[in-house]
Amino acid sequence: MNEHAKPTIVTVGESGLGPYGQIVVADRHVLSADEGEALGGRDTGPTPYQLLAAGLGACTAITVRMYAARKEWPLERISVQVTHEKLDGRPSGPDKFARLLTLEGPLSEGQRTRLLEIANKCPVHQTLGRANPIETALAPLPGAAAGQAAAEQAAAG
Predict the structure, then answer these.
(1) How many CA atoms lie within 13 A of 129 on its CB side?
(2) 55 with 42, same domain?
């Protein structure tokens, strides 16, 4: 199965570090997330928007690195700086992401231009660039399944 075709599962739960601190678990990786002090958090980790920007930057760098390696181009190092801003200052307003790519190595101008084009093909860039459905549901309460089964059995009896 294609790695991108498998569902990605990330679990997030409260860390107990301040009112908004979170522990993020993705497979064997553990990160923290929080809001800054200006929003009442304790700044124990990146904000959710910083994590989103990090995902875009990482995906961009990886995509460019893979392409350059496949072409055997002399890309020695890539770094990506991502800036995120709310265009009208409202939480529900439009967002803008800007990336600044630093490509190191003896690349031709044509190679540099092509790597910029490839950066725009990174999967996270493509995901952010289109509307995507987000489904949200409540998990059952602990023991609710057993209680539901007992109620159904009593009603059938």
Answers:
(1) 9
(2) no
Neighbours of 11 (CB within 10 A): 8
Cα→Cα distances 45→33, 38, 39, 52, Å: 4, 14, 13, 13
pLDDT in tens, 85-143: 999 888 888 899 999 999 999 999 999 999 999 999 999 999 999 988 999 999 999 88
Question: Considering the entire predicted model, what is its pTM?
Answer: 0.84
Domain of 117: which CATH number?
3.30.300.20
Strands 22-26 and 29-33: antiparallel
Q: How far apart are CA 53 and CA 99, in angstroms?
A: 9
Tell me if residue 146 falls in helix, strand or coil. Answer: helix
**Residue 80, Cβ density class (10 Å: 0-12 exposed, 13-18 middle, ≥19 buried):** buried
Domain that holds residue 52: 47-130
